[in-house]
Amino acid sequence: MARRARRPEARPDEILDAALAVFSEVGFAGARVEDIAARAGLSKGAVYVYFESKELMLKALVRRLADRVVGAAEMLVQSNAQADAEQTLRSLLTFMAMQLSNPKVSAAPRLVLAEAQRFPEIAALYRDDVIGRARQLLGKLCDRGIAQGVFRAVDRDVMLRSCAGPMLAHMMLSTVFADPKNPAPPPEVIAGGIADLVLNGLRPRP
Amino acid sequence: MARRARRPEARPDEILDAALAVFSEVGFAGARVEDIAARAGLSKGAVYVYFESKELMLKALVRRLADRVVGAAEMLVQSNAQADAEQTLRSLLTFMAMQLSNPKVSAAPRLVLAEAQRFPEIAALYRDDVIGRARQLLGKLCDRGIAQGVFRAVDRDVMLRSCAGPMLAHMMLSTVFADPKNPAPPPEVIAGGIADLVLNGLRPRP
Amino acid sequence: MARRARRPEARPDEILDAALAVFSEVGFAGARVEDIAARAGLSKGAVYVYFESKELMLKALVRRLADRVVGAAEMLVQSNAQADAEQTLRSLLTFMAMQLSNPKVSAAPRLVLAEAQRFPEIAALYRDDVIGRARQLLGKLCDRGIAQGVFRAVDRDVMLRSCAGPMLAHMMLSTVFADPKNPAPPPEVIAGGIADLVLNGLRPRP
Amino acid sequence: MARRARRPEARPDEILDAALAVFSEVGFAGARVEDIAARAGLSKGAVYVYFESKELMLKALVRRLADRVVGAAEMLVQSNAQADAEQTLRSLLTFMAMQLSNPKVSAAPRLVLAEAQRFPEIAALYRDDVIGRARQLLGKLCDRGIAQGVFRAVDRDVMLRSCAGPMLAHMMLSTVFADPKNPAPPPEVIAGGIADLVLNGLRPRP
DNA sequence: AATGAATGAGCCTTCATTCAT
DNA sequence: CATGAATGAAGGCTCATTCAT
Predict the structure, then answer these.
(1) Residue–nucleotide distance: C46 CA to E16 C1' (Å)
(2) Which residue among A127, A161, A193 sits closest to B194, beta carbon to beta carbon?
(3) Same domain assignment for residues C126 and C190
């Protein structure tokens, strides 16, 4: 066919894109390899040339997600290394909230959320490669802010939950639980509001 | 057996308990009706006397969840109607965080989180019966706090995300994404820390 | 259907009969569970109620074969315990040759011959439960004959090969390698001839 | 590779060697063309340059087997044309038994045994080109022995079964059904014992 | 109400074979 | 000749659901 031997090295990524799309629609268990193949413009058998099983597609997807998402966050923090911690955290929170307002971006994290219980390996991968790194990142930022006197002392696990939690909630409320009859304010408003609240919460009191 | 003679009208609830347990372990798609039946001490066929299909079990489960969870939260808020908003919200946040630290309690919400994407009806039910009521509850509390001068003006959707988010994150980090090698601080510490941070964030500034 | 719940305890044996028929026609690998089911008058799924996998059907078949075949041989030898060894062996050889002239009887042994290489467990089962017991049987008979002075001293493994071999050859030449253009003499002639030759071979020389 | 430049006309034979090895291990149906190709040092596609299908490989293999095996036997008999029939048959039987004690030699005949039922064409080929010629060979030898007065009159089909059978049994007992815990006597002993027994059986009686 | 044998649709996976390069 | 990506048909097995008892 037209596709035959055309950019064969791009195939795995194309398949993963298709898999993510299908998984997001019907869940991992409900996804048919044939549908993934069709969406990638391949035959069922061809998919198995690149991935040994449906489950390995899921794992590869999570790995790719980790590379991308955390990479972006870490880059953002590094590029703000000179700025004060408060400003950096505000940038981070608004950036994440804006990103997660895009259903295409949130598709992969939502998939992980949905399948992690069922697949402990996925959970472990995400825990180590995404949550763990996020915790490190926030922890360092926290330390910097405390040293600068702009943050109050706060436990890292509390920090993680208080920063990532609103992102998580926003992600779910923007997609799965979005109410067509009661649309939420635009992303910028939400993102700004969350950042304000969290940062105010972190500020020390006399 | 002994079960049969005793409380035949309790059968549906027993089946739902069994279903929740199995769904939580292997997900809705991975759950076998036969396993649910076995855990409820029944045969496969008997389950179909009470529930027409596996999917209807899931829906019934979510309905039951909504009744219980939001009921508890609303009751808590009502019983604190006299107290100041700050104290009430602190009670609510710590109560929820403590509750969700118990994997048995969080099993149902986690199930919803995992399956909502796949089943729009479930998502709608949860959105209306749980999230919607939670939003109302927080909104009223917010209004009260603003009127009392203890809360700054804050958007309801930001409030929802900022309060429910940390609970959500805590729930997932206590179960699916718990790291056996890096145990988190005890629930009281986490719950108190989150409440502190959120309430401090809500406090007005000069 | 008509078959539903009728003699459910006969089902495994019925399925094995069907499996043997299909395996014999197209080999184990070529056999479709659906065909076996159809021949047993069942649906594909019903077969899996009784056998976990196609391979376990094969094993059960071999076990059943062992029970039947060797049982018959041992019974024959026991019932001739009083007779002299020569006569007993003659009876055994002609009985076996006659039996194996019937393609229905030889179907199972031929199946084992065909699949043993592929399934070491099958080979081991057959080796221990059929060949091993046959070797014992022949060995004892041999000893008796030697004690009676009607047999020359002969190694047990030579004995096994010299007695079982012609049976084996006869079995294959009567079925798979039968030449429609050159039909062999009737079973009695063959059976008698083989017995004569083997027994004459066993007779001591001055 | 080195293989490519060297002896390109030997490719078919190399492929057949590889095919025999793989077929022997996992059976015809279980053999993957890719594995055969790999063992022959070729790619999957290249194999199809030489053989149109997997089944044709099997047929070619059987044809090659017939050429080799029967050729050897016929040659052995011819070179003993002057000797007496008894001695010739003894040579033939011990030679065959010794040969078949080698699993590499017996691989092809065992393969035929396993697959003949499934592939009537294979069976017919083997019947005509191997069994038929063996029957001829033994028949002539028989006639010579009878004429020389060293053999009793015996039916050709009985002769075939009584001579080939022990070989067959020995072949299977040396490989597929070999018992690692009860090793058989060395090949010479077995071969000699079988020849003794058969030849004694053929000897006329007063 | 309860049982559990039976059904049948469905899906993952394998692999012989093809063919563009 | 050789490669290996791609195809597509095929089949083992699972399981929600039904229903005779």
Answers:
(1) 30
(2) A161
(3) yes
What mean pLDDT is reported for chain D? Answer: 91
**Are C and A touching by the rule of 3+ CB pairs within 8 Å?**
no
- Domain CATH number, residue B116: 1.10.357.10
For strand E, is any atom closer than 7 Å to the CB of C32?
A: no
State the Cα–Cα distance between residues B169 and A130, nearest whole angstrom.
14
Cβ-Cβ contacts under 8 Å between A and B: the total is 169
Asked if C158 lies within 8 A of D116 by C-beta distance, the reply is no
Residues D165, D73 share a domain:
yes
Measured CA to CA, the distance from residue D73 to residue D77 in angstroms comes to 6
Chain C residues whose beta carbon lies within 8 Å of the beta carbon of residue D24: 117
Q: Are residues B106 and B198 in the same domain?
A: yes
The pLDDT of residue D14: 93
Of D26, D168, D185, the CB nearest to C157: D185
CB D43 within 7 Å, strand E? no
**Environment class of residue C52 by beta-carbon count within 10 Å: exposed (0-12), middle (13-18) or buried (19+)?**
exposed
pTM over 0.85: yes
Please determine, for residue D81, whether its predicted confidence score (pLDDT) is greater than 90. no
- The CATH number that applies at residue D25 is 1.10.10.60
Residues A38 and A89 in one domain: no
User: Which pair of tokens denotes residue D47?
Assistant: 């194999």
The first and second tokens of residue C71, run together, are: 């049982």
* Alpha-carbon span D158 to D139, nearest angstrom: 10
CB D75 within 8 A of CB D188: no
Q: Are residues A41 and A83 in the same domain?
A: no
Nearest to B152 by CA among B88, B206, B93, B79: B206
Judging contacts by C-beta atoms under 8 Å, the chain D residues touching residue C175 are 117
Q: Where in the sequence is the domain holding A28, given as residue range(s)? A: 1-52
| CB contacts, 8 Å: B131 with chain A | 173, 177
CB < 7 A to strand F: residues 24-43, chain A: 37, 42-43
Chains adjacent to C (≥3 CB pairs closer than 8 angstroms): D
D197 to chain C, closest Cα gap in Å: 5
CA A166 vs CA A204, B15, D76, D113, D192: distances in Å: 21, 35, 90, 71, 88
Whole-number Å distance between alpha carbons of B18 and B112:
16
A138 with A36, same domain? no
Number of domains in chain B: 2
CB contact under 8 A, A29 and B29: yes
If asked whether residues B126 and B104 sit together in one domain, one would say yes
Question: Could you read off the pLDDT of B153-201 as tens digits, one per residue?
Answer: 999 999 999 999 999 999 999 999 999 999 999 999 999 999 999 999 9
DSSP string, A108-152: HHHHHHHHTTT-HHHHHHHIIIIIHHHHHHHHHHHHHHHHHTSS-
Does residue B55 reach within 7 angstroms of strand F, measured from its CB? yes
Lowest mean pLDDT among A109-118, C23-32, C46-55, C80-89: C80-89
Which positions ≥6 away from D189 have C-beta within 8 Å? C155, C158
Whether residue A44 is found in the same domain as residue A95: no
Q: CA-to-C1' distance for C36 and F14, Å?
A: 18
